[in-house]
Description:
CATH superfamily of the largest domain: Glycogen Phosphorylase B
Order of helices and strands: EHEEHEEHHHEHEEHEHEHEHEEHHH
Number of strands: 13
Strand order of the largest sheet: 3-2-1-4-5-6-7
Amino acid sequence: xxxxxxxxxxxxxxxxxxxxxxxxxxxxxxxxxxxxxxxxxxxxxxxxxxxxxxxxxxxxxxxxxxxxxxxxxxxxxxxxxxxxxxxxxxxxxxxxxxxxxxxxxxxxxxxxxxxxxxxxxxxxxxxxxxxxxxxxxxxxxxxxxxxxxxxxxxxxxxxxxxxxxxxxxxxxxxxxxxxxxxxxxxxxxxxxxxxxxxxxxxxxxxxxxxxxxxxxxxxxxxxxxxxxxxxxxxxxxxxxxxxxxxxxxxxxxxxxxxxxxxxxxxxxxxxxxxxxxxxxxxxxxxxxxxxxxxxxxxxxxxxxxxxxxxxxxxxxxxxxxxxxxxxxxxxxxxxxxxxxxxxxxxxxxxxxxxxxxxxxxxxxxxxxxxxxxxxxxxxxxxxxxxxxxxxxxxxxxxxxxx
Length: 402
């Protein structure tokens, strides 16, 4: 069966998941993969036909061009929509079923609007800056955000239209399924992601940790500031350093975190755009992994940490609770920084508890969150979508007013 796939994913867990699924399924289906300039490239796809589309309008605005951001970004949306029409035409001629992932321009790419073949939209994340309250500040100023309102209205229209056009929507956690139902009125199929526990592993010699690790883009909702705040409450004599591993950055946010850490007397190091091998080394050498993200849709980071045999301290928010069972495979806390501090103190003071949680976490990943089980479930969703008549997955039009 021929599958035409599309993505414009940045580096990180989502791209790793998409590449992993296609790699496992590349000998089961014939793949034609379309990506857009600016997206990460998928490795190890020997049998897939790859097509990368030029999109110079997708480059980050800088310098004087930022003064014209509202106009330039509106033009970017229009240009991206036109590109998606051309890509969809190629996908219609190549595939029997389309598998569409998120894009960095519009979460649900307009490719979906123009497909004549059955489609699966694998939604990793909805545009949180449009649908969550309080609103995420995009420019750092109230006036700048006001100037972007027409752009956001257009982005919302395009995003909702594309979701409505999908034959099947899939996602990866009960939390995300509930959010997609609330935001779009769709009922999504479940595909639980897994991680490669042969790669993400403790290694032959289990390393005694030296730092606390926080992994994720340098964005406000990734919780790095909350991690710094909680660690700053530990006694200075036993306060471990924090390492942040990040693939992307909201302009200036890394420096803001460094200043905050310095004021809080927390030793902070930021590692940017590192390889998977370097990330593995950071996991293995960590005392614990801190997952303080707010409403994270799923969270591959705790699974990767657990696969490495490391204890996880995570905010009881978003999709984390789907994989972290409190005091069995990790530790969960609610919002107070003092509660997180107490759990971190417990981990770094009790080696037995640390080892117990790390071992149980790795056992959970090996038994329940494998890449093979994820790919098999995705294959089932893809095949089932091909048997359904072309129709919208919407439950009702009630949420279109949101």
